[in-house]
Design goal:
10% helix, mainly beta
């Protein structure tokens, strides 16, 4: 679910996008530590000279679940680094007005509050413009004063750049509460353009959910730790796919109607603020 910094919500956590290659045996990029200016570099990873594994084990499924080899660790870290390039933190500002409806409460009061969630860069253009996919309930609040109940002040942050100096404004393009999906637009961001040129930001490659099977390694990427005094930031957790296809019914973003989704269940830890992130 989204992290509602001044209000609580009972929405179930939904991850929005299935990353491609998250259980791949190798990749070409790894993330370096954050640079002094708050950016994240990306460097080439040299090819391994080790002989290929002749095991018949299916890709992404550990042969011995109690043993994690160096190769497994490298593969997971490499896959996570790739996913982090396409991940963003999302922060929304809302206002709600209450009171002023009776002689005993004549003065209306406006409260400002914030929500936090995650998103995935779906398309990235050379000029720093982008489309970002997230969950509808990340940018929507039923108490909001806006006409469509969607935040009119949305900012996104790239991984390793969770600082006010690197806030990227985004606007709501459209979405669906029934499918719990929303699309955001970023217009000509120099921050995003520079990050893409350095290899620290990239559009996601979306996977085919029909290829997912139980037991596959699952890596969840999202923004679980935001608060009213801390921007938090993107983090990574790991588990396995528990069920490759099931249906769940939950309360929609309007806090009243019910919606049913077909989902993938995983035991990778996800927390408030992970909504809209990738798996």
């Amino acid at each position: 679910m989204k992290q509602k910094i001044t209000k609580l919500t009972s929405l179930l956590v939904l991850l929005c996008v299935l990353f491609s290659g998250m259980a791949a045996a190798s990749c070409g990029l790894t993330a370096n530590p954050t640079d002094t200016d708050g950016t994240v570099q990306a460097t080439e990873k040299t090819d391994s000279t080790e002989e290929p594994d002749d095991s018949d084990t299916a890709p992404g499924i550990a042969e011995d679940t109690d043993t994690i080899t160096r190769e497994d660790t490298d593969s997971i870290a490499c896959a996570a680094a790739s996913g982090l390039q396409s991940s963003v933190s999302i922060y929304c500002t809302f206002e709600t007005t209450y009171g002023g409806t009776s002689p005993w409460d004549p003065m209306p009061t406006t409260q400002t509050y914030y929500t936090a969630g995650s998103g995935v860069i779906y398309r990235l253009e050379d000029d720093g413009s982008a489309f970002i996919v997230t969950n509808h309930h990340v940018v929507y609040d039923s108490d909001s004063d806006t006409e469509n109940r969607v935040s009119d002040k949305i900012y996104v942050y790239l991984y390793g750049m969770e600082d006010e100096a690197y806030a990227i404004p985004a606007t709501y393009v459209g979405g669906s509460a029934n499918y719990d999906i929303a699309v955001l637009r970023v217009d000509q961001s120099e921050i995003l353009k520079n990050a893409a040129e350095m290899g620290a930001a990239a559009a996601v490659t979306v996977a085919d959910s029909d290829e997912v099977v139980p037991g596959m390694t699952a890596i969840a990427i999202g923004n679980p730790s935001a608060s009213d005094t801390d921007l938090g930031g993107i983090s990574v957790t790991r588990g396995i796919v528990s069920v490759d296809s099931e249906y769940i019914t939950m309360t929609a973003s309007d806090d009243s109607s019910e919606v049913t989704f077909r989902v993938i269940r995983t035991d990778a830890p996800v927390n408030s603020g992970n909504s809209g992130g990738g798996l």
